[in-house]
# Entry
Amino acid sequence: MSAKEDAVFLQAVYERLSSHYDLDRWHWRPETPALDICLGAVLVQHTAWTNVERALANLRDAHCLALEALAALPESELALLLRPAGTPLTKARRVRALVELVGSHGGFEGLFALPLPALREALLATPGVGPETADVILLYAARRPVIVHDAYTTRLLRRLGTGPEGERYDTWRGWLHSRLPDALEARQRFHAGIVVHCKETCRAKPRCGACPLVELCAFAAASMPVRA
# Structure
């Protein structure tokens, strides 16, 4: 397909996902504090979101869900609070590094005021922040209309029979950028829709019979029995 045809196809995918799922239940909303989003983006690495919620609840109950409190908390105590998210000492160090980055710019307002290339570079230079995590922070916390690519996106679009040649993050990021609407909300909801869909339906072992995309899906067409 051409880039224009891809864009039409992706819009059809989004419309079906948006109609099928309540995407407003996505854990990051416009009113979600930037700190909560940034912490979640770091803590969710190699664990389930339910574990992240438990770690964030620990911070909230300890009155440590604030930049100043996190900066003042001893690393060992922070690690104990983050234990539900796994690898607690590693994640405590990553959280501290992120807090230090924000603090060095006078807070989130100063950090997020940086031009997009400089902001992304600063995030990528922070321990524990790779390309996907950086783009999540940019998209949901800094509210920049960037592309987030993840394993769920690869799984779904490959099954649908589309996507770029190659598997590099930047290849996917560029391919999606040229085919998705530029609007912030559209990109936020597209990513949310894919994550929700792949967790609930397009799993490693897919539930094709319950899929709102089944009529668009090359994988389903090849694997589901033909009806007489």
